[in-house]
Amino acid sequence: MNQVSETASAKEDPARRILAFLQERIGPQKFNAWFRHGTQVSIENGHVKVSVPNSFVANWIESHYCALIASTAQEATGRSRPIMVMIDPALSGEVRKRQLDVQADLVAKSTSGRARPRRPIAVPALRHNLDDFVVGDNNRLAYSAAMMAAGGSRAPFNPLFIHGACGVGKTHLLQGVCSAVSRQSGRHVAWRYVTAEQFTNEYIQAVRKKAYAEFRARYRRLDLLAIDDVHFLAAKKATQDEFLHTFDAIETAGKQVVMASDAHPRLVGELNEQLVSRFIAGMVVKIDPPNRATRMEILRRRAARMRLTVPDDVLDYIAAHVRGSVRELEGALVKLTALAALESGPITLDMAMRTLADHLARTDSVITLGDIEAITAVFFGITPADIHSTRRTKTVSLARMVAMFLGRRHTRMSFPEIGRFMGKNHSSVVLAVQRMEKLLSGNGQAKWMTPMGVKSMPAGKIIELLTEQLA
Protein backbone atom coordinates (compact mmCIF):
# COMPACT_ATOMS: atom_id res chain seq x y z
CA MET A 1 0.00 0.00 0.00
CA ASN A 2 1.01 3.59 -0.46
CA GLN A 3 2.65 4.85 2.72
CA VAL A 4 1.01 7.92 4.25
CA SER A 5 2.23 9.80 7.32
CA GLU A 6 -0.07 12.14 9.28
CA THR A 7 -0.96 12.57 12.94
CA ALA A 8 -4.70 12.32 12.42
CA SER A 9 -6.55 9.03 12.44
CA ALA A 10 -6.85 7.06 9.21
CA LYS A 11 -10.47 8.08 8.82
CA GLU A 12 -9.61 11.77 9.15
CA ASP A 13 -6.25 11.57 7.41
CA PRO A 14 -6.03 14.49 4.91
CA ALA A 15 -3.22 12.78 2.99
CA ARG A 16 -5.38 9.71 2.48
CA ARG A 17 -8.22 11.92 1.30
CA ILE A 18 -5.88 13.56 -1.20
CA LEU A 19 -4.94 10.13 -2.56
CA ALA A 20 -8.56 9.04 -2.70
CA PHE A 21 -9.57 12.15 -4.64
CA LEU A 22 -6.55 11.72 -6.91
CA GLN A 23 -7.47 8.13 -7.70
CA GLU A 24 -10.97 9.22 -8.67
CA ARG A 25 -9.59 11.89 -11.00
CA ILE A 26 -6.93 9.88 -12.87
CA GLY A 27 -8.37 6.36 -12.68
CA PRO A 28 -6.98 3.18 -11.09
CA GLN A 29 -4.44 2.29 -13.79
CA LYS A 30 -2.49 5.54 -13.64
CA PHE A 31 -2.91 5.81 -9.88
CA ASN A 32 -1.52 2.32 -9.33
CA ALA A 33 1.37 3.00 -11.70
CA TRP A 34 2.56 6.26 -10.10
CA PHE A 35 1.16 6.45 -6.57
CA ARG A 36 0.26 3.00 -5.20
CA HIS A 37 3.81 1.69 -4.65
CA GLY A 38 7.10 3.46 -4.04
CA THR A 39 5.51 6.87 -3.47
CA GLN A 40 4.82 8.48 -0.11
CA VAL A 41 2.41 11.36 0.42
CA SER A 42 2.35 13.36 3.64
CA ILE A 43 1.37 16.78 4.95
CA GLU A 44 4.27 18.37 6.76
CA ASN A 45 4.68 21.95 7.94
CA GLY A 46 1.76 23.10 5.83
CA HIS A 47 3.14 21.48 2.63
CA VAL A 48 2.02 18.43 0.71
CA LYS A 49 5.19 16.39 0.36
CA VAL A 50 5.38 13.72 -2.33
CA SER A 51 8.41 11.45 -1.84
CA VAL A 52 9.41 9.32 -4.83
CA PRO A 53 12.15 6.74 -5.52
CA ASN A 54 14.04 8.41 -8.38
CA SER A 55 14.31 11.46 -10.62
CA PHE A 56 12.28 9.90 -13.43
CA VAL A 57 9.19 9.43 -11.27
CA ALA A 58 9.75 12.90 -9.77
CA ASN A 59 9.82 14.55 -13.19
CA TRP A 60 6.80 12.60 -14.42
CA ILE A 61 4.68 13.48 -11.39
CA GLU A 62 5.78 17.13 -11.51
CA SER A 63 4.99 17.39 -15.23
CA HIS A 64 1.68 15.52 -15.23
CA TYR A 65 0.12 15.56 -11.77
CA CYS A 66 1.42 18.52 -9.73
CA ALA A 67 -1.48 20.84 -10.56
CA LEU A 68 -3.97 18.05 -9.94
CA ILE A 69 -2.38 17.20 -6.58
CA ALA A 70 -2.62 20.88 -5.62
CA SER A 71 -6.33 21.07 -6.48
CA THR A 72 -7.15 17.80 -4.72
CA ALA A 73 -5.15 18.92 -1.67
CA GLN A 74 -7.19 22.11 -1.47
CA GLU A 75 -10.38 20.08 -1.81
CA ALA A 76 -9.29 17.55 0.82
CA THR A 77 -7.88 19.96 3.39
CA GLY A 78 -9.91 23.09 2.81
CA ARG A 79 -6.98 25.35 1.95
CA SER A 80 -4.26 25.82 -0.64
CA ARG A 81 -0.98 24.05 0.12
CA PRO A 82 2.39 24.18 -1.70
CA ILE A 83 3.39 20.89 -3.35
CA MET A 84 6.93 19.60 -2.86
CA VAL A 85 8.21 16.60 -4.82
CA MET A 86 11.40 15.13 -3.39
CA ILE A 87 13.55 12.12 -4.20
CA ASP A 88 14.13 9.49 -1.52
CA PRO A 89 16.31 6.65 -2.90
CA ALA A 90 15.26 4.51 0.07
CA LEU A 91 11.88 4.10 -1.63
CA SER A 92 13.38 2.40 -4.71
CA GLY A 93 12.88 -1.00 -3.10
CA GLU A 94 9.13 -0.37 -3.02
CA VAL A 95 8.91 -0.27 -6.80
CA ARG A 96 8.34 -3.81 -8.05
CA LYS A 97 9.44 -5.03 -11.48
CA ARG A 98 5.85 -5.36 -12.65
CA GLN A 99 5.20 -1.81 -11.52
CA LEU A 100 8.17 -0.56 -13.54
CA ASP A 101 6.88 -2.33 -16.63
CA VAL A 102 3.46 -0.70 -16.17
CA GLN A 103 5.11 2.73 -15.88
CA ALA A 104 7.17 2.06 -19.01
CA ASP A 105 4.04 1.05 -20.94
CA LEU A 106 2.13 4.15 -19.82
CA VAL A 107 5.03 6.42 -20.79
CA ALA A 108 5.36 4.72 -24.18
CA LYS A 109 1.64 5.14 -24.89
CA SER A 110 1.62 8.74 -23.72
CA THR A 111 4.66 9.88 -25.66
CA SER A 112 3.79 7.96 -28.83
CA GLY A 113 0.23 9.22 -28.88
CA ARG A 114 -1.32 5.75 -28.89
CA ALA A 115 -3.34 6.67 -25.81
CA ARG A 116 -5.94 9.25 -26.81
CA PRO A 117 -6.47 11.96 -24.19
CA ARG A 118 -9.92 11.91 -22.59
CA ARG A 119 -10.11 15.66 -22.05
CA PRO A 120 -9.20 18.66 -24.20
CA ILE A 121 -5.54 19.55 -23.83
CA ALA A 122 -4.79 22.62 -21.72
CA VAL A 123 -1.64 24.72 -21.77
CA PRO A 124 0.41 24.08 -18.59
CA ALA A 125 0.13 26.90 -16.07
CA LEU A 126 3.23 29.04 -15.59
CA ARG A 127 4.73 28.73 -12.11
CA HIS A 128 8.04 30.54 -12.59
CA ASN A 129 9.42 33.92 -13.59
CA LEU A 130 12.90 35.27 -14.24
CA ASP A 131 12.86 37.55 -11.21
CA ASP A 132 13.07 34.67 -8.72
CA PHE A 133 15.65 32.64 -10.67
CA VAL A 134 18.85 32.28 -8.63
CA VAL A 135 21.81 33.14 -10.87
CA GLY A 136 25.22 31.56 -10.33
CA ASP A 137 28.30 30.54 -12.28
CA ASN A 138 26.54 27.33 -13.33
CA ASN A 139 23.66 29.06 -15.11
CA ARG A 140 24.71 32.68 -15.77
CA LEU A 141 25.02 32.27 -19.54
CA ALA A 142 21.68 30.48 -19.82
CA TYR A 143 20.00 33.17 -17.71
CA SER A 144 21.49 35.98 -19.80
CA ALA A 145 20.34 34.28 -22.99
CA ALA A 146 16.85 33.83 -21.55
CA MET A 147 16.72 37.54 -20.65
CA MET A 148 17.65 38.44 -24.22
CA ALA A 149 15.00 36.08 -25.61
CA ALA A 150 12.43 37.72 -23.30
CA GLY A 151 13.40 41.25 -24.37
CA GLY A 152 11.28 43.49 -26.53
CA SER A 153 13.62 43.37 -29.52
CA ARG A 154 14.65 40.30 -31.48
CA ALA A 155 17.44 38.25 -29.88
CA PRO A 156 20.66 37.81 -31.91
CA PHE A 157 20.13 34.04 -31.87
CA ASN A 158 17.26 31.74 -32.75
CA PRO A 159 16.54 29.28 -31.30
CA LEU A 160 17.73 29.26 -27.71
CA PHE A 161 18.33 25.65 -26.69
CA ILE A 162 18.97 25.01 -22.98
CA HIS A 163 20.08 21.57 -21.80
CA GLY A 164 21.17 20.01 -18.54
CA ALA A 165 20.33 17.38 -15.95
CA CYS A 166 16.96 17.10 -14.22
CA GLY A 167 16.14 19.77 -11.66
CA VAL A 168 18.72 22.43 -12.59
CA GLY A 169 16.28 25.13 -13.73
CA LYS A 170 15.55 24.58 -17.43
CA THR A 171 11.78 24.71 -17.06
CA HIS A 172 12.12 27.72 -14.73
CA LEU A 173 13.92 29.66 -17.48
CA LEU A 174 11.48 28.68 -20.22
CA GLN A 175 8.45 29.63 -18.16
CA GLY A 176 10.28 32.73 -16.99
CA VAL A 177 10.72 33.89 -20.58
CA CYS A 178 7.01 33.36 -21.22
CA SER A 179 6.06 35.20 -18.02
CA ALA A 180 8.28 38.16 -18.95
CA VAL A 181 6.84 38.34 -22.46
CA SER A 182 3.26 38.14 -21.17
CA ARG A 183 3.88 41.16 -18.93
CA GLN A 184 5.31 43.41 -21.62
CA SER A 185 3.31 46.60 -21.95
CA GLY A 186 2.50 48.48 -25.10
CA ARG A 187 2.17 45.50 -27.42
CA HIS A 188 0.31 42.20 -27.69
CA VAL A 189 2.59 39.16 -27.82
CA ALA A 190 1.27 35.74 -28.79
CA TRP A 191 3.20 33.11 -26.86
CA ARG A 192 2.79 29.47 -25.95
CA TYR A 193 4.58 27.16 -23.49
CA VAL A 194 4.16 23.42 -24.07
CA THR A 195 6.06 20.21 -23.52
CA ALA A 196 7.15 18.18 -26.53
CA GLU A 197 4.78 15.47 -25.36
CA GLN A 198 1.85 17.90 -25.45
CA PHE A 199 2.87 19.16 -28.90
CA THR A 200 2.91 15.53 -30.05
CA ASN A 201 -0.53 14.77 -28.63
CA GLU A 202 -2.04 17.93 -30.11
CA TYR A 203 -0.60 17.05 -33.51
CA ILE A 204 -2.00 13.52 -33.31
CA GLN A 205 -5.42 14.89 -32.40
CA ALA A 206 -5.23 17.27 -35.36
CA VAL A 207 -4.42 14.38 -37.70
CA ARG A 208 -7.28 12.26 -36.35
CA LYS A 209 -9.79 15.10 -36.59
CA LYS A 210 -8.35 16.47 -39.83
CA ALA A 211 -7.91 19.80 -38.07
CA TYR A 212 -4.54 20.67 -39.62
CA ALA A 213 -5.36 24.31 -40.32
CA GLU A 214 -6.40 24.99 -36.73
CA PHE A 215 -3.32 23.26 -35.33
CA ARG A 216 -0.92 25.10 -37.62
CA ALA A 217 -2.56 28.47 -36.98
CA ARG A 218 -2.23 27.84 -33.24
CA TYR A 219 1.55 27.45 -33.50
CA ARG A 220 2.85 29.09 -36.64
CA ARG A 221 1.50 32.57 -35.85
CA LEU A 222 3.20 32.78 -32.45
CA ASP A 223 5.65 35.49 -31.47
CA LEU A 224 7.23 33.11 -28.97
CA LEU A 225 7.14 29.32 -28.75
CA ALA A 226 8.67 27.70 -25.66
CA ILE A 227 8.85 23.93 -25.89
CA ASP A 228 10.08 21.83 -22.99
CA ASP A 229 11.47 18.27 -22.90
CA VAL A 230 12.45 18.31 -26.58
CA HIS A 231 14.02 14.87 -26.15
CA PHE A 232 10.47 13.41 -26.15
CA LEU A 233 10.41 14.02 -29.90
CA ALA A 234 13.01 11.27 -30.35
CA ALA A 235 12.00 8.61 -32.91
CA LYS A 236 8.65 10.33 -33.66
CA LYS A 237 9.22 11.02 -37.34
CA ALA A 238 5.85 12.55 -38.25
CA THR A 239 5.84 14.87 -35.24
CA GLN A 240 9.44 15.90 -35.94
CA ASP A 241 8.52 16.76 -39.52
CA GLU A 242 5.60 18.89 -38.31
CA PHE A 243 7.74 20.61 -35.71
CA LEU A 244 10.39 21.33 -38.35
CA HIS A 245 7.78 23.17 -40.46
CA THR A 246 6.49 24.96 -37.36
CA PHE A 247 9.99 26.05 -36.42
CA ASP A 248 10.74 27.27 -39.95
CA ALA A 249 7.50 29.27 -40.07
CA ILE A 250 8.19 30.99 -36.75
CA GLU A 251 11.83 31.70 -37.57
CA THR A 252 11.03 33.00 -41.07
CA ALA A 253 8.55 35.43 -39.53
CA GLY A 254 11.34 36.78 -37.32
CA LYS A 255 9.85 35.36 -34.13
CA GLN A 256 11.50 33.47 -31.25
CA VAL A 257 11.76 29.80 -30.27
CA VAL A 258 13.19 28.68 -26.91
CA MET A 259 13.63 25.02 -25.98
CA ALA A 260 14.88 22.79 -23.21
CA SER A 261 16.09 19.21 -23.14
CA ASP A 262 17.90 16.81 -20.87
CA ALA A 263 20.67 16.49 -23.47
CA HIS A 264 22.54 18.38 -26.17
CA PRO A 265 20.73 18.22 -29.55
CA ARG A 266 23.37 15.90 -30.97
CA LEU A 267 22.87 13.47 -28.09
CA VAL A 268 19.10 13.12 -28.45
CA GLY A 269 18.59 9.70 -30.00
CA GLU A 270 16.79 9.52 -33.37
CA LEU A 271 16.34 13.25 -33.79
CA ASN A 272 15.93 14.46 -37.36
CA GLU A 273 19.27 15.81 -38.63
CA GLN A 274 17.49 18.82 -40.10
CA LEU A 275 16.17 19.68 -36.65
CA VAL A 276 19.58 19.14 -35.08
CA SER A 277 21.23 21.48 -37.59
CA ARG A 278 18.65 24.19 -36.89
CA PHE A 279 19.00 23.82 -33.15
CA ILE A 280 22.78 24.11 -33.11
CA ALA A 281 22.63 27.06 -35.53
CA GLY A 282 21.14 29.06 -32.67
CA MET A 283 22.48 29.27 -29.13
CA VAL A 284 22.96 25.98 -27.30
CA VAL A 285 23.81 26.44 -23.63
CA LYS A 286 24.17 23.98 -20.79
CA ILE A 287 23.09 24.48 -17.17
CA ASP A 288 25.28 22.68 -14.66
CA PRO A 289 24.28 21.72 -11.11
CA PRO A 290 24.50 24.75 -8.78
CA ASN A 291 27.76 25.44 -6.95
CA ARG A 292 27.91 25.94 -3.19
CA ALA A 293 27.30 29.69 -3.23
CA THR A 294 24.31 29.29 -5.54
CA ARG A 295 22.93 26.45 -3.43
CA MET A 296 23.18 28.66 -0.35
CA GLU A 297 21.21 31.44 -2.03
CA ILE A 298 18.58 28.99 -3.28
CA LEU A 299 18.12 27.70 0.27
CA ARG A 300 17.85 31.23 1.68
CA ARG A 301 15.14 32.17 -0.81
CA ARG A 302 13.21 28.92 -0.33
CA ALA A 303 13.31 29.32 3.43
CA ALA A 304 12.08 32.91 3.14
CA ARG A 305 9.27 31.87 0.81
CA MET A 306 8.24 29.16 3.31
CA ARG A 307 8.47 31.74 6.13
CA LEU A 308 11.01 29.63 8.00
CA THR A 309 13.72 30.76 10.38
CA VAL A 310 16.76 28.66 9.53
CA PRO A 311 20.20 29.55 10.97
CA ASP A 312 22.96 30.26 8.48
CA ASP A 313 25.11 27.41 9.79
CA VAL A 314 22.28 24.97 8.98
CA LEU A 315 21.81 26.39 5.49
CA ASP A 316 25.55 26.24 4.94
CA TYR A 317 25.63 22.58 6.04
CA ILE A 318 22.88 21.67 3.58
CA ALA A 319 24.52 23.67 0.78
CA ALA A 320 27.87 22.00 1.45
CA HIS A 321 26.56 18.43 1.45
CA VAL A 322 23.53 18.31 -0.85
CA ARG A 323 25.20 18.91 -4.19
CA GLY A 324 22.61 17.74 -6.69
CA SER A 325 19.56 19.47 -8.11
CA VAL A 326 17.43 22.30 -6.77
CA ARG A 327 14.76 19.70 -6.07
CA GLU A 328 17.10 17.81 -3.72
CA LEU A 329 17.92 21.03 -1.87
CA GLU A 330 14.25 21.81 -1.37
CA GLY A 331 13.56 18.23 -0.29
CA ALA A 332 16.30 18.37 2.33
CA LEU A 333 14.94 21.67 3.67
CA VAL A 334 11.38 20.33 3.86
CA LYS A 335 12.53 17.17 5.64
CA LEU A 336 14.43 19.23 8.20
CA THR A 337 11.62 21.70 8.89
CA ALA A 338 9.12 18.86 9.22
CA LEU A 339 11.25 17.25 11.94
CA ALA A 340 11.60 20.58 13.74
CA ALA A 341 7.81 21.00 13.71
CA LEU A 342 7.38 17.44 15.01
CA GLU A 343 9.82 18.05 17.86
CA SER A 344 8.36 21.51 18.54
CA GLY A 345 11.82 23.02 18.67
CA PRO A 346 14.12 25.29 16.69
CA ILE A 347 16.12 24.09 13.71
CA THR A 348 19.70 23.40 14.77
CA LEU A 349 22.87 22.17 13.11
CA ASP A 350 22.81 18.96 15.15
CA MET A 351 19.27 18.33 13.95
CA ALA A 352 20.35 18.89 10.35
CA MET A 353 23.24 16.44 10.67
CA ARG A 354 20.99 13.78 12.20
CA THR A 355 18.13 14.30 9.80
CA LEU A 356 20.17 14.30 6.60
CA ALA A 357 22.70 11.59 7.51
CA ASP A 358 20.93 8.79 5.63
CA HIS A 359 20.08 11.02 2.66
CA LEU A 360 23.70 12.14 2.32
CA ALA A 361 25.03 8.61 2.58
CA ARG A 362 22.89 7.65 -0.42
CA THR A 363 23.34 10.74 -2.60
CA ASP A 364 26.79 12.12 -1.73
CA SER A 365 27.84 12.64 -5.33
CA VAL A 366 27.70 15.56 -7.73
CA ILE A 367 26.53 13.15 -10.44
CA THR A 368 23.60 10.93 -9.51
CA LEU A 369 22.39 7.69 -11.04
CA GLY A 370 19.19 9.53 -11.94
CA ASP A 371 21.23 11.97 -14.04
CA ILE A 372 23.01 9.08 -15.74
CA GLU A 373 19.76 7.26 -16.52
CA ALA A 374 18.23 10.42 -17.96
CA ILE A 375 21.03 11.23 -20.41
CA THR A 376 21.46 7.55 -21.36
CA ALA A 377 17.75 7.15 -22.09
CA VAL A 378 17.71 10.30 -24.21
CA PHE A 379 20.75 9.12 -26.18
CA PHE A 380 19.12 5.80 -27.08
CA GLY A 381 15.69 7.30 -27.73
CA ILE A 382 13.94 5.50 -24.84
CA THR A 383 12.81 6.53 -21.34
CA PRO A 384 14.27 5.88 -17.87
CA ALA A 385 11.18 3.76 -17.24
CA ASP A 386 12.38 1.40 -19.99
CA ILE A 387 15.77 1.06 -18.27
CA HIS A 388 14.03 0.11 -15.01
CA SER A 389 11.63 -2.31 -16.70
CA THR A 390 12.15 -6.03 -17.42
CA ARG A 391 12.33 -5.43 -21.17
CA ARG A 392 15.28 -7.06 -22.90
CA THR A 393 15.22 -5.61 -26.40
CA LYS A 394 18.62 -4.88 -27.90
CA THR A 395 18.25 -1.13 -27.38
CA VAL A 396 16.96 -1.28 -23.80
CA SER A 397 19.55 -3.89 -22.77
CA LEU A 398 22.39 -1.82 -24.19
CA ALA A 399 21.13 1.38 -22.55
CA ARG A 400 20.77 -0.43 -19.21
CA MET A 401 24.32 -1.81 -19.49
CA VAL A 402 25.75 1.64 -20.31
CA ALA A 403 23.86 3.26 -17.41
CA MET A 404 25.12 0.65 -14.95
CA PHE A 405 28.69 1.08 -16.17
CA LEU A 406 28.54 4.87 -15.88
CA GLY A 407 26.91 4.52 -12.46
CA ARG A 408 29.90 2.58 -11.18
CA ARG A 409 32.36 4.99 -12.80
CA HIS A 410 30.80 8.29 -11.73
CA THR A 411 29.02 7.65 -8.43
CA ARG A 412 29.96 6.12 -5.10
CA MET A 413 27.16 3.59 -5.32
CA SER A 414 28.07 -0.08 -4.90
CA PHE A 415 26.90 -2.88 -7.19
CA PRO A 416 24.02 -3.80 -4.82
CA GLU A 417 22.97 -0.14 -4.45
CA ILE A 418 22.86 0.36 -8.24
CA GLY A 419 20.89 -2.85 -8.54
CA ARG A 420 18.34 -1.78 -5.95
CA PHE A 421 17.98 1.67 -7.54
CA MET A 422 17.34 0.14 -10.98
CA GLY A 423 15.24 -2.79 -9.79
CA LYS A 424 17.90 -5.38 -10.67
CA ASN A 425 20.02 -7.77 -8.63
CA HIS A 426 23.69 -7.42 -7.73
CA SER A 427 24.92 -9.98 -10.26
CA SER A 428 23.12 -8.24 -13.14
CA VAL A 429 25.06 -5.05 -12.45
CA VAL A 430 28.39 -6.88 -12.13
CA LEU A 431 27.79 -8.69 -15.42
CA ALA A 432 26.77 -5.49 -17.21
CA VAL A 433 29.90 -3.65 -16.07
CA GLN A 434 32.12 -6.57 -17.08
CA ARG A 435 30.52 -6.76 -20.53
CA MET A 436 30.99 -3.03 -21.03
CA GLU A 437 34.62 -3.19 -19.93
CA LYS A 438 35.23 -6.02 -22.40
CA LEU A 439 33.67 -3.99 -25.23
CA LEU A 440 35.84 -0.99 -24.36
CA SER A 441 39.08 -2.93 -24.02
CA GLY A 442 38.53 -4.54 -27.42
CA ASN A 443 37.42 -1.31 -29.13
CA GLY A 444 34.14 -3.07 -29.84
CA GLN A 445 31.11 -1.74 -31.66
CA ALA A 446 27.77 -1.34 -29.94
CA LYS A 447 24.67 -1.97 -32.04
CA TRP A 448 21.05 -1.20 -31.30
CA MET A 449 17.72 -0.97 -33.10
CA THR A 450 16.05 2.29 -34.08
CA PRO A 451 12.84 2.95 -36.03
CA MET A 452 15.09 3.55 -39.03
CA GLY A 453 17.04 0.30 -38.65
CA VAL A 454 20.22 -0.86 -36.93
CA LYS A 455 22.60 1.81 -35.63
CA SER A 456 26.24 1.15 -34.76
CA MET A 457 28.85 3.15 -32.87
CA PRO A 458 32.11 2.33 -31.08
CA ALA A 459 31.36 1.63 -27.42
CA GLY A 460 34.16 3.99 -26.40
CA LYS A 461 32.56 6.82 -28.38
CA ILE A 462 29.22 6.29 -26.61
CA ILE A 463 30.90 6.47 -23.20
CA GLU A 464 32.86 9.55 -24.29
CA LEU A 465 29.77 11.39 -25.49
CA LEU A 466 27.71 10.59 -22.41
CA THR A 467 30.60 11.43 -20.07
CA GLU A 468 30.90 14.85 -21.73
CA GLN A 469 27.19 15.36 -21.12
CA LEU A 470 27.62 14.51 -17.43
CA ALA A 471 30.59 16.82 -16.96
Descriptive notes:
The structure is a single chain. The chain is an alpha/beta fold and 471 residues long. It has four domains: 3-112, 2-Layer Sandwich (GMP Synthetase, Chain A, domain 3); 130-287, Rossmann fold (3-Layer(aba) Sandwich), CATH 3.40.50.300; 292-363, Orthogonal Bundle (Helicase, Ruva Protein, domain 3); 369-470, Chromosomal Replication Initiator Protein Dnaa, Chain: A. It is 55% helix and 12% strand. It has 21 helices and eleven strands. A five-stranded parallel beta sheet has the order 6-7-8-5-9, with helices on both faces. It has a four-stranded mixed beta sheet with strand order 1-2-3-4, with helices on both faces. A two-stranded antiparallel ribbon has the order 10-11.
Query: Rg from C-alpha positions?
Result: 22 Å
- State the CATH topology of the largest domain: Rossmann fold
Low-confidence stretches: 1-11, 113-123
> What fraction of the residues are assigned to beta strands by DSSP?
5-15%
Q: Care to count the β-strands? A: 11
Helix/strand structural class = alpha/beta
Find the CATH superfamily of the largest domain.
Answer: P-loop containing nucleotide triphosphate hydrolases
Could you provide a short overview of the structure?
By secondary structure, the chain is α/β, with parallel strands linked by helices.
Helix-strand blueprint:
Layout: E1 3-5, H1 14-26, H2 28-36, E2 40-44, E3 47-52, H3 55-64, H4 66-77, E4 83-87, H5 97-112, H6 140-149, E5 160-164, H7 170-182, E6 191-195, H8 196-209, H9 212-220, E7 224-228, H10 237-252, E8 256-261, H11 273-281, E9 283-287, H12 292-305, H13 312-321, H14 326-343, H15 349-363, H16 369-380, H17 384-388, H18 394-410, H19 415-422, H20 426-441, E10 445-450, E11 453-458, H21 459-470
Parallel strand pairs: 1-2, 3-4, 5-8, 5-9, 6-7, 7-8
Antiparallel strand pairs: 2-3, 10-11
Helix pairs in contact: 1-2, 1-4, 2-5, 6-7, 12-13, 12-14, 13-15, 14-15, 16-18, 18-20, 19-20
